[in-house]
Protein backbone atom coordinates (compact mmCIF):
# COMPACT_ATOMS: atom_id res chain seq x y z
CA UNK A 1 0.00 0.00 0.00
CA UNK A 2 1.27 3.46 -0.94
CA UNK A 3 1.60 5.36 2.34
CA UNK A 4 1.93 8.70 0.55
CA UNK A 5 -1.46 8.21 -1.11
CA UNK A 6 -3.03 7.36 2.26
CA UNK A 7 -1.72 10.52 3.89
CA UNK A 8 -2.75 12.68 0.94
CA UNK A 9 -6.27 11.28 1.10
CA UNK A 10 -6.36 11.93 4.85
CA UNK A 11 -5.23 15.55 4.52
CA UNK A 12 -7.75 16.13 1.75
CA UNK A 13 -10.80 14.74 3.54
CA UNK A 14 -9.91 16.49 6.81
CA UNK A 15 -9.31 19.85 5.12
CA UNK A 16 -12.54 19.60 3.16
CA UNK A 17 -14.60 18.95 6.32
CA UNK A 18 -12.77 21.60 8.32
CA UNK A 19 -13.62 24.16 5.63
CA UNK A 20 -17.27 23.09 5.57
CA UNK A 21 -17.87 23.07 9.32
CA UNK A 22 -15.84 26.26 9.86
CA UNK A 23 -17.94 28.21 7.36
CA UNK A 24 -21.25 29.83 7.99
CA UNK A 25 -23.24 27.06 6.33
CA UNK A 26 -26.57 26.46 8.00
CA UNK A 27 -26.54 23.56 10.42
CA UNK A 28 -22.77 23.44 10.81
CA UNK A 29 -22.44 25.72 13.84
CA UNK A 30 -22.64 24.85 17.52
CA UNK A 31 -20.40 22.99 19.95
CA UNK A 32 -20.58 19.70 18.06
CA UNK A 33 -19.51 21.33 14.81
CA UNK A 34 -16.63 23.05 16.56
CA UNK A 35 -15.58 19.71 18.10
CA UNK A 36 -15.50 18.18 14.65
CA UNK A 37 -13.33 21.01 13.30
CA UNK A 38 -10.88 20.75 16.18
CA UNK A 39 -10.52 16.98 16.00
CA UNK A 40 -9.96 17.11 12.23
CA UNK A 41 -7.15 19.61 12.78
CA UNK A 42 -5.59 17.44 15.50
CA UNK A 43 -5.72 14.43 13.18
CA UNK A 44 -3.89 16.43 10.51
CA UNK A 45 -1.22 17.43 13.04
CA UNK A 46 -0.70 13.81 14.12
CA UNK A 47 -0.56 12.70 10.49
CA UNK A 48 2.12 15.26 9.60
CA UNK A 49 4.30 13.91 12.41
CA UNK A 50 3.54 10.29 11.54
CA UNK A 51 4.19 10.46 7.80
CA UNK A 52 8.02 10.61 7.90
CA UNK A 53 8.11 8.02 10.73
CA UNK A 54 5.98 5.55 8.77
CA UNK A 55 8.11 6.09 5.67
CA UNK A 56 11.25 5.47 7.71
CA UNK A 57 9.96 2.20 9.13
CA UNK A 58 8.70 1.05 5.72
CA UNK A 59 12.23 1.49 4.36
CA UNK A 60 13.91 -0.71 6.98
CA UNK A 61 11.40 -3.09 8.61
CA UNK A 62 12.15 -5.86 6.09
CA UNK A 63 15.56 -6.28 7.78
CA UNK A 64 13.76 -7.67 10.86
CA UNK A 65 11.61 -10.32 9.16
CA UNK A 66 11.73 -13.88 10.47
CA UNK A 67 13.14 -14.97 7.12
CA UNK A 68 12.79 -13.89 3.45
CA UNK A 69 9.69 -16.06 3.04
CA UNK A 70 7.89 -14.78 6.15
CA UNK A 71 7.58 -10.97 5.98
CA UNK A 72 6.49 -10.45 9.57
CA UNK A 73 7.79 -8.68 12.66
CA UNK A 74 6.61 -6.23 15.29
CA UNK A 75 7.62 -3.14 13.33
CA UNK A 76 5.56 -4.25 10.34
CA UNK A 77 2.59 -4.98 12.60
CA UNK A 78 2.73 -1.55 14.24
CA UNK A 79 2.92 0.23 10.89
CA UNK A 80 -0.03 -1.81 9.62
CA UNK A 81 -2.13 -0.92 12.67
CA UNK A 82 -1.37 2.78 12.11
CA UNK A 83 -2.37 2.48 8.45
CA UNK A 84 -5.61 0.73 9.40
CA UNK A 85 -6.41 3.56 11.80
CA UNK A 86 -5.69 6.14 9.09
CA UNK A 87 -7.84 4.27 6.55
CA UNK A 88 -10.75 4.13 8.99
CA UNK A 89 -10.46 7.88 9.60
CA UNK A 90 -10.49 8.48 5.84
CA UNK A 91 -13.55 6.24 5.47
CA UNK A 92 -15.31 8.07 8.31
CA UNK A 93 -14.33 11.45 6.90
CA UNK A 94 -15.78 10.55 3.50
CA UNK A 95 -18.97 9.38 5.18
CA UNK A 96 -19.24 12.77 6.89
CA UNK A 97 -18.65 14.53 3.58
CA UNK A 98 -21.39 12.50 1.87
CA UNK A 99 -24.00 12.83 4.64
CA UNK A 100 -23.34 16.11 6.44
CA UNK A 101 -26.19 17.95 4.68
CA UNK A 102 -28.75 15.28 5.60
CA UNK A 103 -31.36 16.13 8.23
CA UNK A 104 -30.55 12.76 9.84
CA UNK A 105 -26.83 13.53 10.18
CA UNK A 106 -25.76 13.68 13.84
CA UNK A 107 -22.79 15.99 14.21
CA UNK A 108 -22.15 15.10 17.86
CA UNK A 109 -22.10 11.35 17.21
CA UNK A 110 -19.66 11.68 14.31
CA UNK A 111 -17.50 14.08 16.32
CA UNK A 112 -17.31 11.45 19.07
CA UNK A 113 -16.25 8.80 16.53
CA UNK A 114 -13.49 10.99 15.14
CA UNK A 115 -12.29 11.94 18.63
CA UNK A 116 -12.01 8.26 19.56
CA UNK A 117 -9.84 7.48 16.54
CA UNK A 118 -7.83 10.65 17.05
CA UNK A 119 -7.01 9.47 20.59
CA UNK A 120 -6.00 6.06 19.22
CA UNK A 121 -3.81 7.76 16.62
CA UNK A 122 -2.16 9.81 19.38
CA UNK A 123 -1.27 6.69 21.38
CA UNK A 124 -0.06 4.90 18.23
CA UNK A 125 2.22 7.86 17.65
CA UNK A 126 3.64 7.35 21.16
CA UNK A 127 4.17 3.64 20.44
CA UNK A 128 6.02 4.52 17.24
CA UNK A 129 8.26 6.79 19.29
CA UNK A 130 9.16 3.84 21.53
CA UNK A 131 9.68 1.67 18.46
CA UNK A 132 12.03 4.31 17.03
CA UNK A 133 14.09 4.17 20.20
CA UNK A 134 14.32 0.38 19.93
CA UNK A 135 15.31 0.67 16.28
CA UNK A 136 18.02 3.18 17.14
CA UNK A 137 19.41 1.38 20.20
CA UNK A 138 19.40 -2.17 18.81
CA UNK A 139 22.03 -3.56 16.54
CA UNK A 140 21.10 -3.95 12.87
CA UNK A 141 18.47 -6.62 12.26
CA UNK A 142 17.93 -7.45 15.96
CA UNK A 143 14.48 -7.12 17.50
CA UNK A 144 15.72 -7.43 21.09
CA UNK A 145 18.22 -5.59 23.23
CA UNK A 146 21.52 -7.28 23.89
CA UNK A 147 21.99 -5.38 27.14
CA UNK A 148 18.72 -4.68 28.96
CA UNK A 149 20.19 -3.02 32.06
CA UNK A 150 17.87 -0.12 32.88
CA UNK A 151 16.38 0.09 29.40
CA UNK A 152 13.62 -2.48 29.95
CA UNK A 153 12.55 -0.72 33.14
CA UNK A 154 12.41 2.57 31.26
CA UNK A 155 10.28 1.06 28.50
CA UNK A 156 7.85 -0.51 30.95
CA UNK A 157 7.51 2.76 32.84
CA UNK A 158 6.75 4.72 29.66
CA UNK A 159 4.36 2.07 28.38
CA UNK A 160 2.53 1.93 31.73
CA UNK A 161 1.99 5.70 31.61
CA UNK A 162 0.20 5.49 28.27
CA UNK A 163 -3.57 5.82 28.03
CA UNK A 164 -4.68 2.49 26.55
CA UNK A 165 -8.42 2.78 27.13
CA UNK A 166 -8.83 4.37 23.68
CA UNK A 167 -8.00 1.02 22.07
CA UNK A 168 -10.82 -0.81 23.88
CA UNK A 169 -13.76 1.50 23.21
CA UNK A 170 -14.97 2.27 19.70
CA UNK A 171 -11.78 0.91 18.14
CA UNK A 172 -12.05 -2.65 19.45
CA UNK A 173 -13.32 -5.35 17.13
CA UNK A 174 -14.49 -7.92 19.72
CA UNK A 175 -17.12 -5.65 21.29
CA UNK A 176 -19.29 -8.45 22.70
CA UNK A 177 -16.37 -9.99 24.60
CA UNK A 178 -15.25 -6.56 25.84
CA UNK A 179 -18.73 -5.67 27.10
CA UNK A 180 -19.04 -9.02 28.83
CA UNK A 181 -15.60 -8.71 30.40
CA UNK A 182 -16.06 -5.23 31.87
CA UNK A 183 -19.54 -6.09 33.17
CA UNK A 184 -18.14 -9.25 34.75
CA UNK A 185 -15.25 -7.24 36.22
CA UNK A 186 -17.65 -4.83 37.91
CA UNK A 187 -19.40 -7.71 39.67
CA UNK A 188 -16.30 -9.81 40.34
CA UNK A 189 -15.95 -10.79 44.02
CA UNK A 190 -19.38 -9.34 44.86
CA UNK A 191 -20.98 -12.76 44.44
CA UNK A 192 -19.87 -16.19 45.53
CA UNK A 193 -21.45 -18.23 42.75
CA UNK A 194 -20.88 -18.16 39.01
CA UNK A 195 -24.63 -17.77 38.49
CA UNK A 196 -24.68 -14.62 40.64
CA UNK A 197 -21.82 -13.01 38.76
CA UNK A 198 -23.27 -13.98 35.38
CA UNK A 199 -26.73 -12.62 36.22
CA UNK A 200 -25.42 -9.35 37.66
CA UNK A 201 -23.06 -8.92 34.72
CA UNK A 202 -25.97 -9.29 32.31
CA UNK A 203 -27.97 -6.56 34.03
CA UNK A 204 -25.05 -4.12 34.24
CA UNK A 205 -23.74 -4.66 30.71
CA UNK A 206 -26.13 -2.16 29.12
CA UNK A 207 -24.23 0.95 30.20
CA UNK A 208 -21.01 -0.42 28.70
CA UNK A 209 -22.78 -1.26 25.44
CA UNK A 210 -23.96 2.34 24.92
CA UNK A 211 -20.90 4.17 26.28
CA UNK A 212 -17.70 3.13 24.44
CA UNK A 213 -15.46 5.54 26.39
CA UNK A 214 -16.66 4.13 29.73
CA UNK A 215 -16.14 0.62 28.36
CA UNK A 216 -12.58 1.44 27.27
CA UNK A 217 -11.64 3.00 30.62
CA UNK A 218 -13.03 0.03 32.57
CA UNK A 219 -11.31 -2.45 30.24
CA UNK A 220 -7.99 -0.71 30.83
CA UNK A 221 -8.52 -0.80 34.61
CA UNK A 222 -9.36 -4.50 34.57
CA UNK A 223 -6.50 -5.59 32.33
CA UNK A 224 -3.93 -3.70 34.41
CA UNK A 225 -5.07 -4.38 37.97
CA UNK A 226 -6.66 -7.83 38.22
CA UNK A 227 -4.83 -11.09 38.71
CA UNK A 228 -4.90 -14.49 37.00
CA UNK A 229 -7.75 -15.70 39.25
CA UNK A 230 -10.07 -13.11 37.72
CA UNK A 231 -9.24 -14.32 34.21
CA UNK A 232 -9.80 -17.92 35.23
CA UNK A 233 -13.19 -17.00 36.71
CA UNK A 234 -14.17 -15.06 33.57
CA UNK A 235 -13.26 -17.81 31.10
CA UNK A 236 -14.89 -20.43 33.34
CA UNK A 237 -18.22 -18.59 33.47
CA UNK A 238 -19.67 -20.98 30.87
CA UNK A 239 -19.22 -23.83 33.34
CA UNK A 240 -22.27 -22.92 35.44
CA UNK A 241 -24.67 -25.81 35.92
CA UNK A 242 -27.36 -24.29 33.71
CA UNK A 243 -25.09 -24.71 30.70
CA UNK A 244 -23.62 -28.18 31.14
CA UNK A 245 -23.95 -31.69 32.61
CA UNK A 246 -21.57 -33.99 34.47
CA UNK A 247 -19.77 -36.87 32.77
CA UNK A 248 -16.49 -36.96 34.65
CA UNK A 249 -13.82 -39.62 35.21
CA UNK A 250 -10.81 -39.84 37.53
CA UNK A 251 -8.14 -42.21 36.21
CA UNK A 252 -5.68 -43.50 38.86
CA UNK A 253 -1.95 -42.84 38.33
CA UNK A 254 -0.56 -46.27 37.57
CA UNK A 255 2.30 -47.48 35.36
CA UNK A 256 1.27 -49.57 32.38
CA UNK A 257 2.95 -51.23 29.42
CA UNK A 258 2.09 -50.15 25.89
CA UNK A 259 2.92 -52.46 22.94
CA UNK A 260 5.01 -50.86 20.21
CA UNK A 261 3.29 -50.31 16.87
CA UNK A 262 6.36 -51.56 14.98
CA UNK A 263 6.81 -54.67 17.14
CA UNK A 264 3.87 -55.89 19.24
CA UNK A 265 6.10 -58.31 21.14
CA UNK A 266 8.01 -55.36 22.58
CA UNK A 267 6.53 -52.67 24.83
CA UNK A 268 7.30 -49.40 26.54
CA UNK A 269 6.33 -48.48 30.10
CA UNK A 270 4.19 -45.34 30.44
CA UNK A 271 4.69 -43.57 33.77
CA UNK A 272 1.96 -41.42 35.35
CA UNK A 273 2.47 -37.64 35.63
CA UNK A 274 4.73 -36.58 38.49
CA UNK A 275 5.90 -33.00 37.85
CA UNK A 276 5.64 -30.48 40.72
CA UNK A 277 2.80 -32.08 42.73
CA UNK A 278 3.67 -35.77 42.52
CA UNK A 279 1.49 -38.58 41.23
CA UNK A 280 -2.25 -37.99 41.31
CA UNK A 281 -5.31 -39.13 39.34
CA UNK A 282 -5.80 -37.63 35.87
CA UNK A 283 -9.21 -36.07 35.32
CA UNK A 284 -11.10 -36.73 32.07
CA UNK A 285 -14.60 -36.45 30.67
CA UNK A 286 -16.32 -39.00 28.45
CA UNK A 287 -18.89 -37.59 26.01
CA UNK A 288 -20.91 -39.85 23.76
CA UNK A 289 -24.13 -39.08 21.92
CA UNK A 290 -25.07 -42.75 21.98
CA UNK A 291 -24.69 -45.15 24.89
CA UNK A 292 -22.17 -47.75 23.73
CA UNK A 293 -21.00 -51.09 25.06
CA UNK A 294 -18.69 -50.71 28.03
CA UNK A 295 -19.69 -47.12 28.82
CA UNK A 296 -21.91 -48.29 31.69
CA UNK A 297 -19.57 -51.08 32.82
CA UNK A 298 -18.60 -51.45 36.47
CA UNK A 299 -14.98 -50.73 35.56
CA UNK A 300 -15.81 -47.38 34.02
CA UNK A 301 -18.40 -46.48 36.65
CA UNK A 302 -15.76 -47.06 39.32
CA UNK A 303 -13.74 -44.21 37.78
CA UNK A 304 -16.63 -41.73 37.95
CA UNK A 305 -16.07 -38.61 40.00
CA UNK A 306 -18.78 -36.39 41.42
CA UNK A 307 -19.07 -32.75 40.44
CA UNK A 308 -21.81 -31.88 42.87
CA UNK A 309 -24.61 -34.11 41.59
CA UNK A 310 -25.47 -37.67 40.77
CA UNK A 311 -23.20 -39.19 38.14
CA UNK A 312 -24.28 -41.64 35.49
CA UNK A 313 -22.72 -42.58 32.20
CA UNK A 314 -26.10 -43.30 30.62
CA UNK A 315 -27.15 -40.35 28.49
CA UNK A 316 -30.59 -39.10 29.42
CA UNK A 317 -33.34 -41.59 28.60
CA UNK A 318 -31.22 -43.54 26.11
CA UNK A 319 -30.91 -47.13 27.33
CA UNK A 320 -30.19 -48.93 24.04
CA UNK A 321 -26.54 -49.95 23.90
CA UNK A 322 -24.82 -49.52 20.57
CA UNK A 323 -21.72 -51.52 19.59
CA UNK A 324 -18.32 -50.23 20.63
CA UNK A 325 -17.03 -47.44 18.45
CA UNK A 326 -14.05 -48.20 16.20
CA UNK A 327 -12.82 -44.67 16.87
CA UNK A 328 -12.22 -42.42 19.89
CA UNK A 329 -11.64 -38.68 19.62
CA UNK A 330 -9.11 -37.36 22.15
CA UNK A 331 -9.75 -33.69 23.00
CA UNK A 332 -7.54 -31.18 24.82
CA UNK A 333 -9.54 -28.06 25.65
CA UNK A 334 -8.33 -24.48 25.23
CA UNK A 335 -7.26 -22.22 28.06
CA UNK A 336 -3.47 -22.18 27.78
CA UNK A 337 -3.00 -24.62 30.69
CA UNK A 338 -4.36 -21.84 32.94
CA UNK A 339 -8.16 -21.73 32.65
CA UNK A 340 -11.32 -23.70 31.83
CA UNK A 341 -12.13 -27.40 31.92
CA UNK A 342 -13.83 -29.80 29.53
CA UNK A 343 -17.12 -28.59 31.00
CA UNK A 344 -16.69 -25.25 29.21
CA UNK A 345 -16.49 -27.05 25.87
CA UNK A 346 -19.28 -29.57 26.36
CA UNK A 347 -21.86 -27.91 24.05
CA UNK A 348 -19.79 -28.27 20.88
CA UNK A 349 -18.26 -31.60 21.97
CA UNK A 350 -21.76 -33.09 22.19
CA UNK A 351 -22.46 -31.80 18.71
CA UNK A 352 -19.20 -33.29 17.43
CA UNK A 353 -20.01 -36.64 19.02
CA UNK A 354 -23.44 -36.68 17.38
CA UNK A 355 -22.24 -35.61 13.92
CA UNK A 356 -19.14 -37.85 13.89
CA UNK A 357 -20.84 -40.78 15.57
CA UNK A 358 -17.90 -41.39 17.92
CA UNK A 359 -17.32 -40.93 21.66
CA UNK A 360 -15.02 -38.14 22.83
CA UNK A 361 -12.59 -38.22 25.73
CA UNK A 362 -11.71 -34.71 26.87
CA UNK A 363 -8.77 -34.32 29.25
CA UNK A 364 -9.18 -32.05 32.27
CA UNK A 365 -5.50 -31.30 32.71
CA UNK A 366 -4.30 -29.55 35.87
CA UNK A 367 -4.13 -25.77 35.70
CA UNK A 368 -1.42 -23.24 36.51
CA UNK A 369 -0.41 -21.48 38.69
CA UNK A 370 -1.30 -24.27 41.14
CA UNK A 371 0.16 -26.89 38.78
CA UNK A 372 2.97 -25.24 36.74
CA UNK A 373 4.24 -26.42 33.36
CA UNK A 374 4.95 -29.19 32.39
CA UNK A 375 2.36 -30.87 34.66
CA UNK A 376 -0.54 -30.35 32.24
CA UNK A 377 1.53 -31.59 29.30
CA UNK A 378 2.46 -34.75 31.18
CA UNK A 379 -1.21 -35.40 31.96
CA UNK A 380 -2.21 -34.91 28.32
CA UNK A 381 0.43 -37.41 27.19
CA UNK A 382 -0.57 -39.92 29.87
CA UNK A 383 -4.25 -39.61 28.92
CA UNK A 384 -3.43 -40.12 25.24
UniProtKB/TrEMBL annotation:
Cellular localisation: Cell membrane; Cytoplasm, Cytosol; Lipid droplet; Membrane, Caveola
Keywords from UniProt, A to Z, are: Cell membrane, Cholesterol metabolism, Cytoplasm, Hydrolase, Lipid degradation, Lipid droplet, Lipid metabolism, Membrane, Steroid metabolism, Sterol metabolism
Q: Where is the Hormone-sensitive lipase N-terminal domain positioned along the sequence?
A: 6-296
| EC number(s) given by UniProt | 3.1.1.23, 3.1.1.79
Q: Which reaction is recorded as catalysed by this protein?
A: 2,3-di-(9Z)-octadecenoyl-sn-glycerol + H2O = 2-(9Z-octadecenoyl)-glycerol + (9Z)-octadecenoate + H(+); 1,3-di-(9Z-octadecenoyl)-glycerol + H2O = 1-(9Z-octadecenoyl)-glycerol + (9Z)-octadecenoate + H(+); 2-(5Z,8Z,11Z,14Z-eicosatetraenoyl)-glycerol + H2O = glycerol + (5Z,8Z,11Z,14Z)-eicosatetraenoate + H(+); 1,2,3-tri-(9Z-octadecenoyl)-glycerol + H2O = di-(9Z)-octadecenoylglycerol + (9Z)-octadecenoate + H(+)
How is the quaternary structure described? Monomer and homodimer. Interacts with CAVIN1 in the adipocyte cytoplasm. Interacts with PLIN5.
Q: PANTHER family annotated for this entry? A: HORMONE-SENSITIVE LIPASE, TRIACYLGLYCEROL LIPASE
> What is this protein called in UniProt?
Hormone-sensitive lipase
Q: Tell me the lineage of the source organism.
A: Eukaryota, Metazoa, Chordata, Craniata, Vertebrata
